[in-house]
């Protein structure tokens, strides 16, 4: 708190501001400081309010030991000065007897006799104040349930009584009733009782998050897995990182452990690692530790006890080590509660949870399902190949080296695995290189390994690294007396250098031209080339020119590609090098496609596919099918494209995913599925593509695909799926370390903010967008994006009622718009802020609303001058409509009607092929309502409405006409 309040008014304002903060140390410390300030004033009411705020901070900040102390001060004030407690303060005081009862229950050091004594105190106070006793019996039942004794009688004494003003809210009581039936083993009855809360009909600060966490396993046991998944995503988001809901977090971890989602459980545990230090409630700690133990025990049982795990501060934990520590602490807490209570209830409940068997081997919870194997190592994982692998080759190192070179010369995808094995062997301190002339010296093997590493870097478009590695390999090949291999490495380095040019298409095309000339010269200068090596040089020559055509788009660049491809094809055919024959035919088909001749390209790929099926190599089939699919989509045949890609994926399963570009097949299939109107299938393929890229180290491509998947899931209304996916991505190491491209990360955060807003978490969405707007203000190279983000932030601030901050944000957007116009986004933002201002503040907000609309008017004028054509609504008619709405909110109905008349004149009556019928109909409806209901000019309003209904009906716009018909009927009934 920068400066302490100097007056009671300032104190009350500070209390209101603190009330808007999230629960946690900041809010609690501020509340403590405000109590100290309140004690300086002679008035008791500010002190009472400060103490109430402090008790709330302790209660929801999971500090049960401090809550009763604060309440004791409040009770003393009430006993000494009851008259200063107005009806609201008195209600809060008696309500919080229950808070103290719960706080004492959560502390095993409080004797059982003291718990009963407090409940007696509560009963006596309620009776003296002539308040109903149902809340007291509710606390008595909760004590019985805690003890595990006489619960049936206590339940009947509570549940059979009528509710009072001081009863717990409906949602909380529903949860207690459901838990009673759950404890009795009746899952179905518990779920029936829970339904209003799970459906969102009844809620409070803790509900439905608390009920959801308890209902997850019963839903699974009763066969409603889809509902359990949906509620897990929504419920976890509501309780994560919240010390007062640590037990709920623990039950979500347990749910993950029992559904085959152990990897997600570890991810969520890491996100909530702060709870180990922040939870002060022994009961909450016992609850969360038990959930953590269920998860860790399952992970350890699956053989992953050495995985790192997020645990108590001060040391690094493995799953096995943390599991043992958690079990010891939880056992101790359960023993302390049972010792206090004189029962074994807590130990028994703990044992039942810890020993529970998994309910599902696998249940897909998110768009990004991961296994423990996925997180077992930080190095990229290659999907296991099905044919010749490192384990199939000879164990002799010399034979292994020879086999690796044979596979490499064939372009066989399994060469990568063999090179990886050799890389491991040669890295060992005791490695002894074979003394075999056929194998060659160690320097030759070092060159081979560098060449393989360079190839993989090039596949990931890491051109600078690839170039350096190829050059180093070339030098070693020369030292090893292998000039033909050195020439190939030099040629690959030339291609990598040209590929890394990013100064525009013209510069890159020039670099590729130069690279081709250098490779041709290198080819001509190198003698003693084997047919295999010469074919690879020819392939590089053709590839460079193919890339030049792709870069330039110049049709004159096609002929040289065909010439080089034909040269390669003839040479490879003469020497029966099947891989290079396939490569030449694929390159020719691609060149036809780039030249705009799609039918010829398809015919070429079809011929190639026939050859591949007969003569191989089989690992070229997936890529060829992928190319055919892209061509078929270009020919407007998505069904055929879908079939080709599906077949490509089927065949790709036989090979390492990286080698046959399985990720690209999934990505292309996602696009085709969208053309076919199959968004669910598209979403699956997008996420699979992204995960493959992530495993293989192509992280930028992976995050781009995940970004598309998140946006698609949001567009489909799968809000919780979208948020869960993005939250998972935000926890990735390169994101937390700030290594991901800042603009890509901004796009992920923007989508997340929009999803949070769609999920009705306005506060979190606003916080994210405001932070993103502040960061994007420094994007000097992209003011347009800043304008859009700042405009969205302004709208959410307005929705939150913070119009001062909204005006600041929209001014930033306007300044950025002046540099990079965003007419529609800015106009929409300003109109929406005007609407919010008018709706929330009526007549008092009219001036500010009109100021927003004045800015929108200037935007519309700028758009007209720039001859900008909006993609959506006309900026002028939309502006006139909003003038009508804000004036109506302010009670200025004549001005409202005049504005709506202007909007109708701008729109004009819709015609048969007009897509403005809906907008026009809404404008007529609003004008009719203002005219007939507020200005009480029923006759002209009916004339307006009836004429519009006739026009819309004649156009076949019956849906648009329905609201007008309803309004006309109302006006006639009220006339």
Mean pLDDT: 94
In what range is the share of β-strand residues? under 5%
Return residue spans where pLDDT drops below 50 for at least 5 consecutive residues: 378-391
Spatial strand arrangement across the major sheet: 1-2
Helix content: over 70%
Give the C-alpha Rg: 35 Å
Instruction: Please tell me what the overall shape is.
Output: globular
In total, how many beta strands?
2
| Number of helical regions | 49
Structural class by secondary-structure content? mainly alpha
Instruction: Tell me the distance between the termini.
Output: 60 Å
Largest sheet: 2 strands, antiparallel
Describe, in plain words, how this protein is organized in 3D.
The chain is an all-alpha fold. It contains 49 helices and 2 strands. Strands 1-2 form a two-stranded antiparallel sheet. 48% of the residues are buried. Mean pLDDT is 94; it is low at 378-391.
């Amino acid at each position: 708190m920068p400066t302490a309040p100097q007056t009671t008014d300032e104190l009350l304002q500070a209390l209101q501001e603190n009330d808007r903060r999230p629960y946690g140390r900041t809010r609690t410390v501020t509340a403590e400081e405000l109590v100290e300030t309140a004690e300086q004033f002679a008035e008791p009411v500010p002190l009472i309010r400060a103490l109430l705020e402090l008790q709330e901070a302790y209660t929801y900040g999971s500090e049960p030991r401090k809550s009763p102390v604060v309440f004791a001060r409040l009770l003393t004030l009430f006993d000494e000065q009851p008259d200063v407690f107005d009806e609201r303060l008195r209600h809060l005081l008696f309500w919080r007897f229950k808070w103290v009862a719960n706080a004492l229950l959560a502390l095993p050091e409080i004797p059982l006799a003291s718990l009963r004594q407090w409940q007696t105190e509560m009963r006596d106070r309620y009776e003296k104040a002539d308040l109903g006793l149902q809340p007291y019996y509710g606390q008595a039942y909760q004590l019985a349930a805690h003890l595990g004794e006489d619960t049936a009688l206590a339940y009947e004494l509570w549940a059979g009584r009528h509710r009072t003003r001081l009863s717990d809210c409906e949602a909380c009581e529903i949860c207690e009733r459901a838990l009673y039936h759950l404890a009795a083993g009746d899952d179905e009855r518990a779920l029936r009782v829970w339904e209003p809360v799970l459906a969102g009909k009844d809620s409070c600060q803790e509900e439905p998050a608390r009920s959801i966490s308890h209902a997850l396993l019963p839903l699974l046991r009763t066969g409603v897995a889809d509902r359990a998944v949906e509620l897990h995503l929504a419920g976890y988001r509501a309780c994560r990182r919240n010390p007062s809901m640590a037990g709920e977090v623990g039950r979500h971890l347990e749910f993950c452990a029992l559904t085959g989602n152990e990897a997600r459980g570890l991810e969520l545990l890491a996100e909530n690692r702060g709870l180990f230090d922040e939870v002060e409630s022994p009961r909450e700690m016992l609850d969360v530790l038990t959930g953590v133990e269920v998860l860790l025990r399952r992970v350890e049982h699956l053989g992953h006890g050495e995985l790192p795990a997020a645990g108590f501060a001060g040391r690094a934990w493995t799953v096995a080590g943390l599991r043992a520590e958690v079990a010891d602490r939880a056992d101790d807490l359960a023993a302390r509660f049972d010792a206090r209570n004189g029962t074994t209830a807590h130990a028994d409940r703990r044992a039942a949870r810890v020993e529970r068997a998994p309910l599902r081997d696998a249940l897909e919870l998110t768009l990004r399902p991961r296994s423990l194997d996925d997180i077992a190592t930080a190095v990229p994982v290659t999907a296991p190949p099905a044919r010749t692998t490192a384990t199939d080759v000879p164990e002799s190192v010399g034979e292994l080296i020879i086999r690796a070179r044979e596979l490499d010369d064939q372009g066989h995808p399994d060469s990568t695995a063999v090179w990886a094995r050799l890389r491991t062997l040669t890295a060992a301190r005791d490695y002894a290189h074979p003394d075999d002339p056929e194998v060659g010296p160690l320097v030759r093997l070092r060159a081979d390994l560098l060449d393989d590493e360079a190839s993989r870097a090039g596949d990931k478009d890491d051109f600078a690294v690839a170039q350096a590695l190829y050059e180093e390999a070339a030098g070693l090949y020369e030292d090893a007396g292998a000039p033909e291999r050195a020439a190939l490495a030099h040629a690959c380095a030339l291609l990598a250098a040209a590929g890394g040019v990013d100064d525009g298409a013209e510069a890159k095309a020039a670099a590729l031209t130069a690279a081709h000339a250098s490779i041709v010269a290198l080819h001509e200068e190198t003698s003693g080339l084997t047919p295999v090596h010469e074919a690879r040089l020819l392939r590089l020559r053709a590839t460079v020119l193919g890339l030049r055509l792709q870069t330039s788009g110049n049709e004159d660049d096609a002929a040289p590609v065909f010439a080089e491809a034909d040269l390669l094809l003839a040479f490879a055919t003469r020497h029966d090098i099947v891989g290079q024959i396939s490569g030449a035919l694929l390159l020719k088909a691609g060149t036809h496609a780039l030249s705009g001749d799609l039918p010829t390209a398809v015919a070429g790929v079809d011929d190639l596919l026939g050859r591949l099926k007969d003569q191989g190599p089989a690992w070229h089939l997936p890529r060829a099918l992928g190319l055919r699919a892209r061509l078929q989509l270009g020919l407007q045949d998505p069904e055929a494209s879908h079939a080709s890609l599906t077949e490509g994926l089927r065949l790709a399963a036989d090979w390492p995913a990286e080698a046959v570009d399985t990720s690209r097949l999934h990505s292309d299939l996602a696009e085709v599925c969208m053309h076919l109107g199959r968004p669910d299938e598209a979403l699956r393929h997008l996420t699979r593509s992204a995960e493959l890229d992530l495993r293989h180290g192509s992280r930028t491509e992976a995050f781009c695909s995940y970004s598309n998947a998140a946006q698609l899931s949001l567009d489909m209304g799968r809000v919780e799926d979208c948020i869960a996916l993005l939250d998972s991505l935000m926890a990735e190491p390169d994101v937390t370390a700030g290594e991901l491209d800042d603009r890509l990360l901004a796009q992920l955060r923007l989508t997340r903010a929009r999803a949070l807003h769609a999920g009705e978490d306005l506060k979190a969405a606003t916080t994210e967008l405001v932070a993103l707007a502040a960061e994007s203000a420094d994007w000097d190279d992209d003011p347009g994006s800043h304008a859009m983000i700042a405009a969205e932030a302004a709208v959410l601030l307005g929705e939150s009622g913070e119009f001062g901050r909204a005006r600041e944000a929209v001014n930033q957007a306007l300044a950025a718009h002046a540099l990079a116009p965003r007419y529609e986004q800015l106009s929409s933002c300003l109109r929406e802020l005007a609407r919010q201002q008018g709706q929330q503040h009526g007549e008092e907000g009219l001036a500010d609303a009109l100021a927003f609309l004045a800015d929108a008017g200037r935007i519309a004028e700028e758009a007209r001058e720039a001859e900008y054509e909006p993609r959506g609504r006309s900026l002028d008619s939309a502006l006139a409509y909003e003038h009508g709405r804000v004036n109506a909110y302010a009670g200025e109905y004549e001005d409202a009607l005049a504005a709506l008349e202007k909007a109708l004149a701008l729109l004009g009556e819709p015609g048969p092929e007009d897509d403005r019928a809906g907008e026009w109909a809404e404008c007529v409806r609003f004008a009719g309502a203002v005219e007939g209901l507020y200005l009480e000019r029923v006759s002209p309003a009916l004339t307006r409405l009836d004429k519009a209904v006739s026009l819309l009906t004649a156009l076949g716009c019956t849906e648009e006409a329905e609201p007008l018909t309803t309004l006309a009927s109302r006006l006639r009934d009220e006339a």
